[in-house]
Write a structure and sequence with these properties.
Oligomer: single chain
Strand order of the largest sheet: 7-6-5-8-4-1-2-3-9
Order of helices and strands: EHEHEHEHEEEEEEHEHEHEEH
Shape: globular
Number of helices: 8
Radius of gyration: 21 Å
Length: 338
């Protein structure tokens, strides 16, 4: 019997993020294989216990540990690490899973150090061979796939997963036991202080959760031209808009939109690259997309060697036509719902 602990993440409205649901349901299936329990951990401020109980139940969670404190409103690695390690020691899981988000990458590295557990990050697949945990991850800008087998003699085994890569099987809902913990935090022991958090006013769909992403490169020319990408994303519904490093470095788009090795790693069902040459660094962040469409007027652009569909033409001619055709296809030409 192997117990699985999943560090869940939530939106500002306290709903579980899509990647968290994917990891939780995948973990439920693995726990069933060993007749073990699935435990969820949630750390934050102003948590909605009833919402958490319902959503964790839909993911098949047996027990959820909630740590709620006003000091946890903003992520502080010093505080969060102490709390995460405490949960791990209290629950003593065999496997610990999370999302390869900024928080996940930070906490799981620390957890591996403090527990002396094996760690694989940015994984795209997972399965059990008996009691042996096996994961897959890409390396060298998605050029190779590495199969990682954890040593059965060491515990715990930790892994973070790239958003939107896991395809969970159907699981049966459960009645989740909620354990609410109030932890007294010794402020004098906290070495890092959060003085101010400046939040983006943007309401666009999160890049790491979007099923469809349309990105613009240096060829966009300026920020105003991204309007055509946002309009197309709106037609698609639930789509996000990204940018290449070249566009960000040129000041055309904020770093929060950057996709690539030094930006966000995404795995949407559809990735539309507009005016992006397709450098290795960019491909490292979106190479695991299910379908890649490239629009570039340079027929020799590297992106055409990596895409599923390519259009050799000026993006400013193609994207407006694409938007109109999508409106027709989706029934939005006259403002009708899809």
């Amino acid at each position: 019997m192997s117990n699985v602990l999943v560090l869940a993440e939530i939106h500002e409205d306290k709903d579980l993020t899509k990647p968290s649901i994917q990891v939780l349901k995948t973990a439920r299936y693995l726990a069933d294989q060993t007749k073990g329990n699935l435990i969820a951990a949630l750390i934050g401020s102003g948590l909605n216990t009833e919402k958490a109980k319902e959503q964790f139940g839909q993911c098949g969670v047996d027990k959820a540990v909630l740590i709620d404190d006003a000091l946890l409103e903003n992520y502080n690695p010093d505080i969060y690490t102490k709390l995460f390690i405490k949960i791990i020691k209290d629950q003593n899981p065999d496997f610990i899973f999370g999302i390869n988000s900024l928080i996940g990458m930070d906490l799981f590295s620390a957890a591996s150090f403090h527990t002396n557990g094996g760690l694989a990050m940015d994984c795209t697949e997972v399965h059990l061979d008996g009691s042996t945990l096996n994961v897959s991850r890409t390396m060298y800008s998605n050029k190779i796939i590495v199969k990682v087998k954890f040593n059965d003699h060491f515990k715990p085994k930790l892994a973070t997963f790239r958003p939107n890569t896991l395809i969970p099987k159907e699981i049966l809902p459960k009645t989740t036991e909620i354990i609410s913990e109030k932890v007294t935090i010794d402020q004098s022991s906290v070495k890092q202080k959060i003085k101010e958090v400046v939040k983006s006013q943007s309401k666009e769909v999160s890049l790491t959760e979007a099923g469809i992403i349309i990105s613009g490169g240096r060829a966009m020319g300026n920020w105003d031209n991204y309007k055509i990408l946002f309009e197309t994303a709106e037609v698609l519904g639930g789509a996000a808009v990204g940018a290449s490093r070249a566009a960000v470095d040129s000041g055309y788009a904020p770093h929060s939109m950057q996709v690539g090795q030094t930006g966000k790693t995404v795995s949407p069902k559809l990735y539309i690259a507009c005016g992006i040459s397709g450098a290795i660094q960019h491909f490292a962040g979106m190479g695991s997309s299910k379908v890649i469409v490239a629009i570039n007027k340079d027929p020799n652009a590297p992106i055409f060697k990596k895409c599923d569909y390519g259009i050799v033409d000026d993006l400013f001619k193609v994207v407006p036509v694409l938007k109109q055709e999508l409106k027709k296809l989706l029934g939005k030409e006259n403002g009708l719902p899809v």
